[in-house]
Specification:
Helices cover 71% and strands 0% of the residues. By secondary structure, the chain is mostly helical. It has one domain. Helix 1 runs parallel beside helix 3 and helix 1 runs antiparallel to helix 4. The longest helix has 18 residues. The radius of gyration is 12 Å and the shape is globular. This is LYR motif-containing protein.
């Protein structure tokens, strides 16, 4: 559970790097996804964390933000 909360907080930090007019949409999207997956089977969590990281990279790329901004998230999700 702690890992999920750390990942959630880090993704929200990345959302703050996005253009101002997109932040509310993506913050809501992130929250809904984390709420929907809180009942996940523990064996599926690693896949979910990997997807979280990959989707974050895609979003950063979409808005031309350097992917190194997600290094902390990589440390949380990919260990």
């Amino acid at each position: 559970m702690k890992k999920a909360l750390r990942a959630y907080a880090e993704v929200l930090r990345l959302v703050r790097l996005l253009p101002k007019d997109t932040r509310a949409y993506y913050a809501k999207y992130v929250r809904e996804n984390f709420v929907n997956y809180r009942e996940l089977d523990p064996s599926d969590l690693d896949d979910h964390f990997q997807r979280t990281y990959n989707h974050s990279l895609w979003l950063l790329h979409k808005y031309s933000i350097d992917k190194s901004a997600a290094d902390k998230l990589k440390g949380i999700c990919c260990t």
